[in-house]
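ARCHIVE CARD
Drawer: 12
Card no.: 0347
Subject: one protein chain, sequence and derived structure
Cross-reference: see card 0346
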Amino acid sequence: MLAPRRSSPTPTTTRSGTSSPSWSESSPPPAWDGTPDGAVAQVETTGLIATAYDHWDSRTGDPHMHTHVVISNKTLTALDRKWRSLDSRAMYAWAVAVSELHQAVFADHLTRALGVDWEPSSFYAVS
């Protein structure tokens, strides 16, 4: 049986979600820009196009609140305001950093709201 649908995120997820986007928006990953002679360079971007949606359960129907974010691979460059492709290697490193920040802030809010402790690991586990 699937968990009941929710109409809005809980206050805990809403609060934790505000830290990750503000940091990620202030430091978006670079894009690639080519030159007429065939050279390529990383260039500063103006931001990202993304959408986020919440899931309340796992594929097996167990309670598992989490958020998916889908990011376009195109962005405007800061210098000439042209659409360019994001540098996928820099994008991956950036996404890992944003994910870790989100998990740490989310864990902190759960600790403050519910008083739980966490075991050190690559994934947060309630102790």
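Annotation on reverse: The two ends are 27 Å apart (CA to CA). The chain has a mean pLDDT of 77.
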